[in-house]
Amino acid sequence: MFSAGIGPTAWFLGAELAPAGVRARLQSLSVAAQYISCFLSPIVYYPLNSLVGPLSFLVFIVPLSLSAVYFYQTTKWKNRFEVRRTSVS
């Protein structure tokens, strides 16, 4: 299920949106952040699941949904060059 969700974002975000001068650095940072979050997710989830039960997924679903809505609104009807221009400035 990794490739069906948010997982591949770290691998293509830097390659698509970053200028050539910072592409390698952004790619390294995004993949490192992804690996750290993949490590911390079960550490947070399992104790939370014991306390809250099935609603413990909301800790992950709510921030992901809010960030998806935010990024959709900021990039709606823009091509990748316009997104790059607004993200760099």
Automatic annotation (TrEMBL):
Keyword Transferase tagged: no
Residues spanning the signal sequence: none
Protein name as annotated: MFS domain-containing protein
Origin species: Heterorhabditis bacteriophora
Any one GO CC term of the record: membrane
Main location: membrane
Entry-linked SUPFAM superfamilies: MFS general substrate transporter (SSF103473)
Superkingdom of the source species: Eukaryota
One function term, GO molecular function aspect: transmembrane transporter activity
Residue intervals passing through the bilayer: 48-72
Transmembrane is among the record's keywords: yes
Compartment(s) where it occurs, according to its Swiss-Prot or TrEMBL record: Membrane
Phylogenetic classification of the source organism: Eukaryota, Metazoa, Ecdysozoa, Nematoda, Chromadorea
Keywords tagged on the record: Membrane, Transmembrane, Transmembrane helix
